[in-house]
Amino acid sequence: MSIPAINSVVASAGAGKTTRIVNDIAAEVTVRDPESIVATTFTVKAADELIERSRARLFQAGLPDKAARLLGARFGTINAICGQIVAENAIGLGRSPRAEVIPEAGVGRVFAVSADAAIERHAPVLNDLGDAMGFFEPKRAPDVERSDWRTTVRRLIELARSNGLDAEALERSADRSVESFLALLPAPSADGGDHLDADLDAAVMAALAVVPAEFSATAKSSVALLRQVNAGNRRGERLSWPDWARLSKVSCAKKDGPTLIDAMAAVCRAASRHTEHPRLREHCTQFIRTIFTCAAEALSAFQAWKSERGLLDFIDQEALALDVLRDPVMAARLGERIGRVFVDEFQDSSPLQIAIFTAIADLVDASTWVGDPKQAIYGFRNADSMLTQAAFAGVASLSSGSQDVLATSYRSREGIIRFANAAFAPALAAMGLDPAEHAFAETARSDQGFDHSPLSVWWLEGKLDLQYAALAAAIRDAIAPDSGWQVDDRRGGLRPLGAADVAILCRSRADIAKAAAALGELGVHVAVEREGLARTPHVELVMAAFRWVADPTDRLALAELARFLADDPESDAWLAAAAADDQTAALRAAVPIVPQLEALRETILSLTPADLVDAVMVLPEITRRIETWGDVATRFDDLEALRGFARGYEESCASAGAPATPSGLVLALGAEEPQRPRSLRDDAVKVMTYHGAKGLEWPCVILTGLNKVPKPRLFEPVAEADGAIDWRDPLANRWIRYWPWPYASQSKDVRLDEAALASPLGQEAADRARDEEARLLYVGVTRARDHLVFAPPAKGDLKWLEVLDGAQPGHVTLPRAEANPVQAGQDVFPARTATLTSDDTPVVRPIAGPFVRVSRPPSTRPPLNRRPSAADEGEAYAVVEKIQLGPRLALTGTPDMTRLGEAVHAIIAADRTAMPHPDRLARAQAILERWQVHQVAAQDVLGASDRLSAHLGSRWPDGRLHRETPVSARLGDQLVNGRIDLLVEHGTGLAVIDHKAFPGSRDSWEARAAGYGPQLALYAEALDKARPGSPCELYIHMPIVGALLRVTRAATNA
C-alpha cells in the first residue's frame, strides 16, 4: 500500500499548535486556491477561531483577496466536513441532498423512541438476569455507578458504530465475548448446581443454629446477612450472585467462640464455590448473548427509523463520508476540489475518523495531522489512544511527509515545565513514546517577579469531607488580597490570585460535589456543572405550574404550588388542603395564582411546550417568589438552562418528526436529568473532572484524587483489535468485548476479578489503564500556568503517582516537610508544603438578605406579531358605499361554509379572465373537488369573478391587480404580517379588497362588512409604510350574495 504525504506535528500542551496551523494555512494559500483547503477541529468554537485567525494573518500579509476566498474553504468540525461531503454526493449515495441532522443532544431521545420496541423485547430476560447479578441493589457508595444494562446496550452501539461494526458484527462479538469470559471461570462443578445450593443452604442454617444470643460487633453484619439469606431461602427466592460473594466473606471475632467460627468458615467454603456454579456460567452466557442481540436489533431499528425519515446523526455523516471516499468515482470528484488537509487534535480521533483522514490523505497533495499522543485519553469522543499513537508513529516512519515537534511552552512557568519533563519520562517510555522527542525544550514564560516556586503540596488531614473542608479553607485564604499568591496579568506584570484563576480537578462527580459544597460553605463562589436541575426548588415550582396549566386534573402539581407559594414556608396548610374532602377546591384556594394560570391555559393551544415554560416563568408571582429565596443569579441561571432544555426538546422532536407536547417535555426532563449550568460569575472557582479540563488552562490548578487506584476496563464494553494495529486500515479486525460483572458492589476477593486481570486480555487492559492514567495526569499537570498544587490525603499511598514509576518505584515523591522539595527521579523541585486540617465545627455565614422587588402592577404589552385577520381595534366602522355586482349564487344543500369560502376564494384568486373559458372552468372545478365542495357550480363562481373584474375595470381602467399580495410592516413595537386578497393599484391611490363568503340576508350585509373594518384598516396602515400618503379605499367583496361594500371608520364617514 502506498503511503500518502502526511506531515505529523506533535504539539505538547500549550506549545502553540493553533498558531502553527494558521501559519501553515497562510503559506498554503499562496501556492493553491484557498477554496481547496480543508481544516478540521473538534469543536465549532475552535473551527471559528482557526478560520478567523487564518484570515487575519492573510490580511496582515496584504492578501485581502485570499482572505476573502478562504471563506469558501472547508473549515469545521469533522462532522461538519463530513456533512458537506455527504451533501455534495447525496445523489451518488442514493440519498436526498437535504438531510435533517439530529443535534447531538437529541440523539438520545431519537434512539429511545426508535429502539424502544427492540429493547423491550429483551427486557424481561435482561431484567431477570440483572436481578440475579445485583443490578438493582441500592448503591452502596456515592461514587459507584449502579449497573444498568440499558446503558450497556447504548455503549455497545456507540462503540460498534465508531469502529465500523454493523449488527452482524455485534453478534460475532457476542461469541468472542462469551468464549473469553468463560475462560476466566473454573470448570463447572461435577456435583451440579443443585448440590452447591443445598450445601450452602445447609451451612447457613447450621451457622444460624449456633449464633449466640450476644455476639461481637465483627459478627453483626455477617449474622444479619445469614438471617436475610435464610429467610429468602425459606420463601423459595433465588440467591443472587452478590450474596454468594458476600457469604464467602462472612466472619466473626475470636470471642464469639470456636463453634461459630467453624460454622462461619463452613459457610465461606460453601459460598466460595460460586465460580464453579453451572448456573453462573449459564446466567453470564445468556446475559452476554442477549445484550449483544438486543444491541444489534436496537442498532438496526435505530438506523431503519432514521432512514425512513431522512435523518442523520454525526456518526452517520462520518460513515457515509467514508463510503464516498471509498467510491472511486465520487472520491475522484472530491479530489478535484480539495488539495490540502489539516487535522487538529488528531489524538482524539475515533477509528472511523482515522479511516476518513487516511482516505482523504490519498486524494490530496498533502495532509498535516496535529496532536499530542500524551493527551490521548481512551474513550474521549470514542477515541482509541493506541490506534492514534500507532498512526503518529507510522506516519513518522513510513510517510514521505515531514515530522515536527512543537516543544516550546507558551503556557506554563519553567518550574512546571521542568517537573513535567522529569516526572513523565519513564511513563512515556513505557507507552512507546520517546521522552526526548516529547519533552518540552523550553518555555517562553518568565519567572521574573514571582516570589515562590510554582509547585505546592497541600496534605489534607481527616476523613474525606474534612479533607475538602480543609482544601476549601486553603483556597479561601489563597485568594485573599494579602495572601501573597500572585499570577501573571498577561500584560507583563503580576496581580493577586483571584477565585476565577483557580481550578480544582477531581476524579469523579462525587468528588466534585464535595469540593463544591465545601467551597460553598465558606461563601466561595463555584462554577461547576451539578446534577439535578429538575430537582431544584425553583425549577420544581415552574414545572409544577407548567404541569397544572397543561393538565388541570394534576392535583400533585397543585399541591406543590400550594407548598411553594405559601406565605409561611414552615406552614403545612398545603398538606391539610391535600387531605381535605374536596382536595381540588382546597388546593385551589391555597394557590394565589390560579386565575393567572387558568388564563394561561386558555392560550395553550397556541403555545409550544417551550413557549409555555416561558409564559409560566415570567408570571410576576412566580418570579417574585423565586427572588425571595436568595442567590437569585444562580437560580435564574438554572431557569435559563430549563428554557434551553425545553427548546432542545422541541428541536429533537422536530428532527425525529414527532410532536412536541407538554407531557413529553415533563417525561424528557425526568428521564434525562439535565445538569445545572456552571456559574456565570467572573469570581468563581472552577471545579471539574480531569477529562473535562482537556484543552483548558488556568493560572492555578489543584490536583486531587492522587490516591486513586488505576482500574483497568475489564467489565465494561471495550473495543478490541486482533493482531497488530494497522493505522492504514483502522477498522480491520475490530470487535467489541463485554464481560459482565455478576457481583454488583462486591468488587474484591471473588476470584473472577483476579482471573480477569491475569488473562491476556486483562493484562492488555491493565497496561492500557496504566498508560491512560499517566496521560490523564499529564493533562492535569499541564493545565497550570503559574501554580500547580498537589492536594493528596495525608494518609495512604498515592497510587495514582505510581503510574509514573519506571524500573524503580517512587519515581515521584511529594515532600512532607516544608523545606523538602518535590522529587522526580534524580531531579528536585522547590515546593511550598503545608498540612491542612479542618474540624466538624459548623461554619457561620452571614445570612444574605432577601431580594425585594418594588411592587408595581404588571404591565400588559401587546404581542410582537399582529395578524390582520385577528385585528380588533375597538373602533366602529361603517359601510359608506354598497355596489350590487350581480345575483346571489345558488347553493344546494347545507354546505360547510368554511370549506365553501376557501374554495370560492381560491377560484377567484386563481382565475384569469383572459384565459380560454374551458381552461378556467376546468381549473375552478378542480378547486371545488379538491375542497370537496359540491354545493355550488363552478360556472356560477366564475360568473362572480367576471362581474368583479368588470366592475374594477370600469371603475379603475388604469388599475393594476395584485392578487394574494403579502404584506409585512413594523407598526410601533409590533410586526404586521398578512396577505391581501386583492390589491388594486390605480392612478389616484390604492384599493384593498377582501373576499368573504357570506351568504346572509341583505339587511345583515353592512354589519358583517363593518366587522371586517379593523382587518382592512391594518392592511391600509401597513401599505402606508410602503406608499406614504397614498389614499387607500377598503372593500369587502361578498361573491355569494354578489355585493361589493366600501367601509371606513364611522367617525370619518366618508
UniProtKB/TrEMBL annotation:
<keyword id="KW-0540">Nuclease</keyword>
<dbReference type="InterPro" id="IPR014017">
    <property type="entry name" value="DNA_helicase_UvrD-like_C"/>
</dbReference>
<feature type="domain" description="UvrD-like helicase ATP-binding">
    <location>
        <begin position="1"/>
        <end position="413"/>
    </location>
</feature>
<feature type="region of interest" description="Disordered">
    <location>
        <begin position="853"/>
        <end position="872"/>
    </location>
</feature>
<dbReference type="InterPro" id="IPR027417">
    <property type="entry name" value="P-loop_NTPase"/>
</dbReference>
<keyword id="KW-0269">Exonuclease</keyword>
<keyword id="KW-0234">DNA repair</keyword>
<keyword id="KW-0413">Isomerase</keyword>
<dbReference type="GO" id="GO:0000725">
    <property type="term" value="P:recombinational repair"/>
</dbReference>
<keyword id="KW-0347">Helicase</keyword>
<dbReference type="GO" id="GO:0043138">
    <property type="term" value="F:3'-5' DNA helicase activity"/>
</dbReference>
<dbReference type="GO" id="GO:0003677">
    <property type="term" value="F:DNA binding"/>
</dbReference>
<keyword id="KW-0378">Hydrolase</keyword>
<dbReference type="Pfam" id="PF12705">
    <property type="entry name" value="PDDEXK_1"/>
</dbReference>
<protein>
    <recommendedName>
        <fullName>DNA 3'-5' helicase</fullName>
        <ecNumber>5.6.2.4</ecNumber>
    </recommendedName>
</protein>
<keyword id="KW-0238">DNA-binding</keyword>
<dbReference type="InterPro" id="IPR000212">
    <property type="entry name" value="DNA_helicase_UvrD/REP"/>
</dbReference>
<keyword id="KW-0547">Nucleotide-binding</keyword>
<dbReference type="GO" id="GO:0005524">
    <property type="term" value="F:ATP binding"/>
</dbReference>
<dbReference type="InterPro" id="IPR014016">
    <property type="entry name" value="UvrD-like_ATP-bd"/>
</dbReference>
<dbReference type="InterPro" id="IPR011604">
    <property type="entry name" value="PDDEXK-like_dom_sf"/>
</dbReference>
<feature type="domain" description="UvrD-like helicase C-terminal">
    <location>
        <begin position="414"/>
        <end position="695"/>
    </location>
</feature>
<dbReference type="Pfam" id="PF13361">
    <property type="entry name" value="UvrD_C"/>
</dbReference>
<dbReference type="InterPro" id="IPR038726">
    <property type="entry name" value="PDDEXK_AddAB-type"/>
</dbReference>
<dbReference type="InterPro" id="IPR011335">
    <property type="entry name" value="Restrct_endonuc-II-like"/>
</dbReference>
<feature type="binding site">
    <location>
        <begin position="11"/>
        <end position="18"/>
    </location>
    <ligand>
        <name>ATP</name>
    </ligand>
</feature>
<dbReference type="Pfam" id="PF00580">
    <property type="entry name" value="UvrD-helicase"/>
</dbReference>
<dbReference type="GO" id="GO:0004527">
    <property type="term" value="F:exonuclease activity"/>
</dbReference>
<keyword id="KW-0227">DNA damage</keyword>
<keyword id="KW-0067">ATP-binding</keyword>
